[in-house]
From TrEMBL:
This is DUF6427 family protein. Keywords: Membrane, Transmembrane, Transmembrane helix. It comes from Pedobacter punctiformis. The chain crosses the membrane at residues 12-29, 59-79, 91-124, 144-171, 183-200, 228-247, 259-276, 282-300, 307-325. It holds the Pfam family DUF6427.
Length: 326
């Protein structure tokens, strides 16, 4: 299967769509009785009143979530290929994106994090263009606005603001206008939100939006380790990918090295931002899928022994299915 997706073959579009729903067999087999979809944070509903909480039946919810993941994987695949992060263009980024988006049952339903992945993929594209742009102030401003829109959908997305500064450190020489540009872009969106709160005589509630930023990072975690055994093959592949990347690191283009460094930081920020939502759900970690999928794809793109990488991927898929059904 890996060898098939190493090629930019149009047939892979059909195979990828079939694979997307194959990885969702478990949730179709045990369909939840009710699935809620909160499209926006409560503080944003005063500005945008869209109520989709009970708009979809459970089957429709899962189906449309699958379609969104498929569309995201194609957009993601095109961006990674356009920026030459892998050894050659392929459908592997899309394949790994779909696989990563199927690790847990909560990943397979409509959620704010799933919607935010469109914004995250868009950000990755803009970040990777920073080093190629003569004047990146506009790009950084746009990224700031994208993060602000993501914050309206899912508040922990605000943590992605840190990645603007990390990207500027990696791709650009210091220019204070660029550093301020991202902040201005972010504040532009929330300025209009503040004005709307003011018009509705509710400005005091606007200040409550930022209270989660004062949360302390939890020192104690309650984890059922059996639920996360599926991550063992993921960890193995990530380790192999890291070793492969280290071996080829200084033979890669500088832009490629910086791109992988940025994606690593995005992965860490996305994972750590869960503490900004006291009642966070497992689907929060969908935000880790885009940066993580690139590293997974990098390994399978550069692996040499076909029998090994094909077997490894097969075991990976089978383990995901096993833990989903069990």
């Amino acid at each position: 299967m890996i060898n098939q997706f190493r090629k930019l073959n149009p047939v892979n579009l059909i195979l990828l769509l079939a694979y997307t729903f194959f990885m969702r067999m478990a949730i179709f087999y045990e369909m939840p009785q009710q699935l809620n979809f909160d499209f926006l944070e409560p503080f944003a509903r005063l500005l945008i009143n869209i109520n989709l909480e009970n708009a979809f039946s459970p089957a429709a919810n899962v189906f449309f979530a699958g379609i969104l993941v498929f569309v995201q994987s194609l957009i993601f695949n095109r961006i990674i290929n356009n920026h030459n992060l892998l050894s050659k263009p392929s459908f592997l980024p899309a394949l790994m994106f779909v696989t990563g988006s199927s690790l847990f049952m909560p990943f397979m339903v409509l959620s704010p994090a799933l919607i935010c992945n469109f914004l995250l993929i868009w950000m990755i594209d803009k970040f990777l263009k920073l080093g190629k742009s003569a004047n990146s102030i506009t790009t950084v401003f746009d990224i700031g606005m994208i993060i602000a829109i993501g914050t309206l959908i899912y508040f922990p997305f605000i943590a992605m603001f840190l990645t603007i500064f990390l990207a500027l450190l990696l791709f650009r020489s210091f220019n204070w206008r660029e550093w301020v540009g991202g902040l201005v872009g972010y504040l532009t969106v929330f300025f209009f939100l503040a004005v709307f709160y003011y018009w509705n005589n509710n400005l005091s509630s606007f200040y409550q939006i930022w209270k989660p930023l004062g949360n302390k990072f939890p020192s104690v975690f309650k984890i059922n380790y059996n639920d996360y055994l599926v991550l063992i093959p993921v960890a193995v592949i990530l380790i192999l990918a890291s070793l492969q990347l280290r071996e080829n690191f200084f033979r890669s283009f500088i832009s490629t090295r910086k791109g992988f460094q940025l994606l690593f930081f995005m992965f860490i920020v996305a994972a750590a931002s869960f503490y900004l939502k006291p009642d966070f759900r497992t689907w929060h970690f969908l935000l880790c899928v885009p940066p993580g999928a690139v590293l997974l794809a990098y390994y399978f793109s550069n692996a040499k022994k076909r029998w090994f990488y094909e077997t490894l991927f097969l075991l990976f898929v089978l383990s995901v299915q096993y833990f989903l059904f069990v």
